[in-house]
Prior knowledge:
The chain has strands at residues 3-7, 10-12, 18-25, 33-39, 46-51, 59-60, 68-73, 78-83, 92-99, 113-114, 118-122. It is mostly beta strands. Strands 2, 4, 5, 6, 9, 10 and 11 form a seven-stranded mixed β-sheet that branches. Strands 1-3-8-7 form a four-stranded antiparallel β-sheet, with no helix packed on it. It is globular, with a radius of gyration of 13 Å. The model has no long low-confidence stretch (mean pLDDT 96).
Amino acid sequence: QLQLVESGGGLVQPGGSLTLSCAVSGTALDRYTTGWFRRAPGKERERVACIPSVSGDTNYSDSVKGRFSMSRDVARNTVYLQMDDLKPEDTAVYYCALAPRPTCPTWQNAFGSWGRGTQVTVSS
């Protein structure tokens, strides 16, 4: 079955960098729109970045623009999230997800497949 496994989370100091990976199995990655989400304790889940399955620009939330970079390697069936200049506000569980649509949807429910998440903690 379709499976997504995140990795790369951990503890990092403010201003540091971290790279998250999402290994996808059970389907071809380029057939899906892919996204990264995060959920901090006591806060709603928010979308961080999204790459449409068709050609187009990657979408980023205002809170991470200029600091995070999302990419995908179709040959390795893996999605990445490069995080630079990390802030304490970035502390959250990060999830990758797939949507069977050609473009990035507005509603999070459109992403039908989710990983279990990886913890990112930014603290001094």
